[in-house]
TrEMBL record:
Keyword Transport: yes
InterPro entries reported for this sequence: AAA+_ATPase, ABC_transporter-like_ATP-bd, ABC_transporter-like_CS, MacB-like_ATP-bd, P-loop_NTPase
Keywords: ATP-binding, Nucleotide-binding, Translocase, Transport
Family listed: Belongs to the ABC transporter superfamily. Macrolide exporter (TC 3.A.1.122) family.
Lineage: Bacteria, Pseudomonadati, Bacteroidota, Cytophagia, Cytophagales
A GO CC term assigned to this protein in UniProt: membrane protein complex
The UniProt record lists the keyword Nucleotide-binding: yes
Any Pfam family hit: ABC_tran
GO molecular function, one term: ATP binding
Ranges of residues in domain ABC transporter: 4-224
Descriptive protein name: ABC transporter ATP-binding protein
Source organism, top-level taxon: Bacteria
């Protein structure tokens, strides 16, 4: 089964005065090992799509499946561990905790894992930092790092939990083109060499062309 499957999804945001249809009849599958980019103009529904894929929000209509099982069939508690264990997030603005060292930031998602000792958590976090080329920066604090380095920490944090899929919301959006290119190279390496499944929202057509598949949205509908 696909890692993630969205079937006939509709998402309507309802406020007291306005009803916005953010996604319209969207169906798509993300298979293991894919690197998919999501493109489209501002307001077309990219963030909404990512939050549904990340199980952070529910569709108004339709079904989301993880590994072939509908998300609705999970209890609230199982859904929380599903979100924590199967999905890694990367954000445009990194979302690191400035009071924690780099290695402590990377360990964060592991704190909620039962059966992992402090020693194993540290070992895993250091290995992930090595993997993203930050082996020499593990005791630094986020504000001592460049933007590109901060995003590498966030990628190491996303990888630490060994998720089935990484969801990246404009991961190079705050970076200059050189650092953005380096982050893109790292994501491509993780996908090609380690088989990491990635869905990435981007505004950058050149970046999107480097991924294996592009999903294009316009006014909440898929155009391809
Ligand atoms: P994108 O990420 O492509 O810019 P979004 O998914 O953020 O698009 O938004 C899609 C549409 O849904 C837009 O019209 C936006 O104004 C609306 N929208 C997004 N979030 C909310 C919300 N929490 N409440 C009401 N409307 C929303
Ligand atoms: P860039 O030019 O790539 O944006 P910076 O000028 O921010 O990078 O940082 C260059 C190097 O200096 C980086 O390797 C970073 O780790 C280090 N560095 C930056 N600020 C500090 C600081 N306040 N304390 C210690 N090291 C720092």
């Amino acid at each position: 089964a696909p890692v993630l499957r969205l079937i006939d999804i509709e998402k309507i945001y309802q406020t007291s005065t306005v009803e916005t249809s953010a996604l319209n009849c969207v169906s798509l599958s993300i298979n293991r090992g894919e690197f998919v980019s999501v493109m489209g103009p501002s307001g077309c529904g990219k963030s909404t799509l990512l939050s549904l894929m990340g199980l952070l929000d529910e569709p108004s209509v339709g079904t989301v499946e993880v590994n072939g099982r509908p998300v609705q069939s999970y209890s609230e508690k199982d859904l929380a561990s599903l979100r924590n264990e199967k999905i890694g997030f990367i954000f445009q603005s990194y979302h690191l905790i400035n009071d924690l060292s780099v290695v402590d930031n990377v360990e964060l998602p592991l704190l909620y894992r039962s059966g992992m000792s402090a020693k194993d958590r540290r070992k895993r976090a250091l290995a992930m930092l090595e993997k993203v080329g930050l082996g020499a920066r593990t005791s630094h604090f986020p504000q001592q790092l460049s933007g590109g380095q901060r995003q590498r920490v966030a990628i190491a944090r996303a990888l630490a939990g060994e998720p089935e899929i990484i969801l990246a919301d404009e991961p190079t959006g705050n970076l200059d083109s050189v650092m953005g290119e380096e982050i893109m190279d790292l994501l491509l390496h993780l996908n090609e060499k380690e088989g990491t499944t990635i869905v990435m929202v981007t505004h950058d057509e050149a970046q999107a062309q480097r991924t294996k598949r592009q999903i294009r949205l316009l006014d909440g509908s898929q155009v391809n």
